[in-house]
Amino acid sequence: MLVLACDPGLINATQAAVAELGAPPPVVLRTQREVLRAVVTSVSGFSHLILEDGDLPIDQSLVDAMAEASPAAIISLLTPEAALSEDGAFLRGLLGGTRHLAHDANRASRNSNRLQAGLQGNSLLLRYQPIIHVRTRRLVLVEALARWRSEPVALTPVNFIPAMEQMGLSRPLAAAVTRIAAWDMSRLPARIDIPVSVNLPAPELDKRDVVAWLGQQLRRSRFPRQRLMIELTETAPVRDLSRMARTLRRLKAAGHGVLMDDYLLDDPRQRLLRLDFAGIKLDRSLVQSLPRSARARNQVLRMARRGLVMTAEGVSSPALLRTLRVLGVARAQGFLMGRPLPVAALPAWNQRWRSAEGLARPAKPHASRT
């Protein structure tokens, strides 16, 4: 169990309730510094999160990141008064599963006007997942991943992106992601002078004005074009190969590299490999199959011999990272290196990763899974 709180009454009441239930003591994080360290070291695995309902001295993006790291966790937003009510019986029932708090945190609004207004306002949030070079282990890229502001914590993409795509909001969403990513990256310290990748489906990438449109999104932040990469998502097929080839050439001439995302074992998009992509991102399922599947290894080796720059997604162990190096995979992304992070946590993550500690396994939670 994890407690994010400052109020002594709420903390003491939770510790007492957990003790009465016969469970190990909860992990308690009280300060911004403590939570930042937990986020950077990938502390996770909690089944219950107690959040103090009040003005915590902790950035909400870090609270969101802690909740996202334990996706199966029950989240309870509590005031100190609620924790102490009924002589602690309410809290014991909450932790024991006999009481519940209702939170409408399952999805964003299904109303098109509200979603569009949210894109123009501050509802869209971004997290950044590090991508490292397999041989040097240096940070070389981050992928921008969308989240949606909600209570008590932000929503993950499955809860709002499908609805936006159905409502024809793919381009406004991509525009907002690009603008926010450019602004966030331009505020990072000079030592983190790396590109960021954003996702675009084929129909948006294929539009004739895509180069000018991307430039419009970067204008206010003055973010360099060569630091914005595009990930071609697999949600829509590429129907016209020659037209896509021309699009890739135009984007490359403007400074944007394009990555093919989520490449699978025996992927039906193999014909696209002859196009001038800046790289190929190997799907988590393909990457996880490499230790046990000769067919998967052979396909990756063939792509490496063709000189394709590959990024492995879903890398979760040092052994898998070593396998990627042997197979000629250039880059790696996954929980071994880091979870999706708020931009504020990237400098701390980078400092830790560059140290000897950062090249070891992610930290494990010092908590029970109660």
UniProtKB/TrEMBL annotation:
EAL domain residues: 108-354
Matching InterPro entries: Cyclic-di-GMP_PDE-like, EAL_dom, EAL_sf
Signal peptide: none
Coiled coil segments of this chain: none
Pfam families: EAL
Entry protein name: EAL domain-containing protein
